[in-house]
Amino acid sequence: MLFDNHQLEKIKASETPLYYYDLNLLDETLEQAKRAADKRNFHVHYALKANFNDRVLSLIQSKGFGADCVSGNEVQKAIDMGFPADQITFAGVGKSDKEIILSLQHDIFAFNVESIQEMEVIDELAGKLGVVAKVSLRINPNVDANTHHYITTGLDENKFGVPTSELEHAAAVIREAKNVELVGLHFHVGSQITDLNVFKSLCVKVNEWKNWFEERGTQIKVLNVGGGLGVDYQHPDENPIPDFEAYFDIFDRFLERTAQQEVHFELGRALVAQCGSLITKVLYTKSGVKKHFLVVDAGMTELMRPALYQAYHKIERVGDSEETPILYDVVGPICESSDCFGKEVPLPKSHRGDLIAIRTAGAYGEVMASRYNLRNEVRYLYSDTLNLSSSL
Ligand SMILES: *Cc1c(COP(=O)(O)O)cnc(C)c1O
Q1: What are 18-44's pLDDT values in tens digits?
Q2: H helices within the chain, ranges in order?
Q3: CA 366 – ligand 1 centroid, Å
Q4: Is residue 224 located within the same domain as residue 263?
Q5: How far is the CA of 382 from the centre of ligand 1 (A)?
Q6: What pTM was computed for the model?
Q7: How many domains does the chain have?
């Protein structure tokens, strides 16, 4: 990562660990995504759960994206940040009554309903409030996302959505429900999907189930195909912005639809992952049996993805070094063996006080931080103002 001298000085003067957000890269990423979507009349809701840092959110909001939420607090946050209620979707297998009522009161764009019982509960609560709930039915299409099994969501064995074997029953419940209006069908098959063929397979399933409903006399206004577009964790500098053109083009070509039917997306990672880096300081160097360790001041408490999904993040030295590279295991201070950011990472011979950047940490990084071991709240720094603040 290239910092200019001014930025480097600010980073060196700041307490670590900290998240560094490159707002210029975020801006350019959002521009490219918006342009590619607008061209095709596609609607994009940003999945707040990937990153709800205030500056990140407000930039996304200012570009005209909708919001995709998975909790009542996220719905409230989206509204507080200025996202229009009629561009907010609410997904999740376990919506509480309180969360449903809040969303009904705000008259959000749609609930992505994940079970028949949830449909009945939303109908009942909407009736009590005297409103009509707009819903999309989340269908589990049994498409393999070819990604890590913890972030695969569209297989029969996953907890998400209504299995296709239950659709006949679901359609009957929707017909009977007096306070529910079916606006669309919703699909989300997984995350960090880099094989665009997965999205082609998804289109085939969406067409199939849309036709299934239409043959039964139910018109579908919205086709919501979820998110999941992956980013290049290996090459953040060569590939800082995902190929949104190619991604949207797949849906443009393979989704069958009329001019009245809207296509909606819920992108999280693809919009925010590359703009964030976790900056950490070397506390100690130590050599074990055939091993060199770099003990850094960030841990799984700041970035959980490696411990949780064995995720790869590129790790590099901040600033220049003349030293020859050595293979290091880069580990954090937390009392867990899984608290390791990378094994055998080539880095210039390092010393106490050196700064390290863990790249592509803008998505599912800061938001997953915990206070385990009574760690400090996460700190962060923005590329433009370079004012250190504390979050969460
Ligand atoms: C997490 C999530 C998304 C966003 O996924 P990304 O892989 O970050 O794009 C979209 N829709 C739903 C329903 C989700 O749960």
Answers
A1: 999 999 999 999 999 999 999 999 999
A2: 5-13, 23-38, 54-62, 72-80, 97-105, 116-129, 167-176, 197-215, 244-254, 269-272, 305-309
A3: 16
A4: yes
A5: 25
A6: 0.94
A7: 2
Instruction: Average the pLDDT over 227-240 and give the result.
Output: 98
SS3 3: coil
Any domain includes 324: yes
Domain-located, residue 100: yes
Q: Which structural domain range is residue 306 located in?
A: 274-382
Is the per-residue pLDDT at 386 higher than 70?
no
Average pLDDT over residues 251-261: 97
Claim to verify: residue 282 and residue 260 sit in the same structural domain: no
Q: Does pLDDT of 389 surpass 60? A: no
CB atoms inside a 10 Å sphere around CB 156: 10
Cβ–Cβ under 8 Å, residues 270 and 226: no
Please work out whether the CB of residue 50 comes within 6 Å of at least one atom of ligand 1.
yes
Instruction: Quote the tokens at residue 146.
Output: 């070819």
Q: Is the CB of 49 under 6 A from ligand 1?
A: yes
Q: Is residue 9 part of a domain?
A: no
Q: Could you give the CA distance from residue 327 to residue 329 in angstroms, rounded to a whole number?
A: 7
* Residue 13: inside a domain: no
Q: What is the CA radius of gyration of the chain?
A: 22
- What b-and-e string marks burial along 304-322, b requiring 16 or more CB atoms within 10 Å of the CB? bbbbebebebbbbbbeeee
pLDDT at 151: 63
Candidate ranges 100-104, 146-150, 214-218; pick with highest mean pLDDT: 100-104
Give the nearest ligand 1 atom to 112 CA: 13
Find out whether the peptide bond into 163 is cis, omega within 30 degrees of 0: no
Nearest-atom number in ligand 1 for the CA of 190 is 7
Do 148 and 265 belong to one domain? yes
